[in-house]
Amino acid sequence: MENFIVSARKYRPDTFQTVVGQASITSTLKNAIKNNQLAHAYLFCGPRGVGKTTCARIFAKTINCQNLSAEIESCNQCESCMAFNGSRSYNIHELDAASNNSVDDIRNLTDQVRIPPQIGNYSIYIIDEVHMLSPSAFNAFLKTLEEPPRHAIFILATTEKHKIIPTILSRCQIFDFNRIKIGDISGHLSHVANSENVSIESEALNVIAHKADGAMRDALSIFDQIVSFSGRSISYKDVISNLNVLDYDYYFRMVELFLKNDISSSLLLFNDILDHGFDGHHFITGLSSHFRDVMVCKDQVTVQLLEVGGEIKEKYKIQAAVCESDFLIGALQIANECDLQYKASQNKRLLVELAIIKMAQLTLKKK
User: Fold this and answer.
1) Domains of the chain, earliest start first
2) pLDDT tens digit string along 288-313?
């Protein structure tokens, strides 16, 4: 039986070109290699799952590649690249600061730094989750980080930049990684699905990308989960069922009822949502997002801010055409107040129902 490899590992980028959503950072790193302007210390910071450690590995491999391509990519054929791909490179050292956070661990590292590389020109030290180092370990690391041997390059990675002392920050070139855009995540998931012979609806990809919250690793983990649930054919309904996501259709129907001033049907629809296992806070925050998306569709200039595609985008445009701006602004204010008061409320259901009644009467006042 063939061993299963999760998509986050199987489709992990191995060249700068395959890194998703970090074009400015990869082009800067490539130019540094091309112009031979390598710093002795780099700090990669940003949220989880956006490619910090991946870029560190690609950068380390490319620095020592003996046959760089014209696009400044590693050849994957020279001795250094093959050693790295086979996880047997003695030039690239990965250290987990979470489990090696003492002064003694840093002392061992500084002793190791003195040893020149066997192949290539540089020894690269990738220190992951560097914010986990103790204050004394940070101080022990300062001198080596500021004046390492000519062959040593440090690449530090962290999700919590604010926990790193300023004296460390001042010794590094700092790269801030962005959350990956929903469109980029959807495009990459589509590529993975084609490679795995999985058919998946575009709306389903969009839901997964939203749920991942800007992290590609999370998106690929969710994708694997959905494939286990649905098999090789994945529909939008499968995804919202498995991920416990509230269907867009509920929000469209709710807004239609508000425009008709139909309070009774609005409350019954909210009750149906509660019966499906969703809590009131989940509903009210989703409704706020829905009103925001309808509002950005009111103007052709802002419609690009809408991060959905296909048929759902057209439904937003249709609903935006029948909703007046005054109604949308009023509904957003009511939903926002409800969101702020939700945690403190003793009767949460009544709070949301009161917000629904207010929204359903917004257009009634104007009439």
Assistant:
1) 7-176 (3.40.50.300), 182-243 (1.10.8.60), 248-366 (1.20.272.10)
2) 989 998 888 888 777 777 777 667 77
